[in-house]
Design brief:
4-stranded antiparallel beta sheet, about 120 residues, mainly beta, 7-stranded mixed beta sheet
Amino acid sequence: QVQVVESGGGLVQAGGSLRLSCAASGSIFSITKHGWYRQAQGTQRELVGTITRDGSTDYADFVKGRFTISRVGANSTAYLQMNSLKPEDTAVYYCKAETLERRYNRANRYEYWGQGTQVTVSS
């Protein structure tokens, strides 16, 4: 099992920057991928970007060139660096740790979500 905690949210002006952290604990060596998601008020949760255990990243088109995902510490901590923030980036940002775990002699994928951190961008 893995526990995930996000931090680093806050209030920033449009055009500013913010860095979010995703700290994982537990069976961190089973983590295959970290994902960052966000959910604005009244909307569904959407993917921001991902990073694999080997460091490969992928981003949603609306954040390409502005956001950067990184990982350090034996796959235990993932970061989301957000630059050139826009008011439409305002949302609760969530971190997800995806794992590959063995149960009943079969490997299965599991997802562990943090509780989110609020990011508010003023115009």
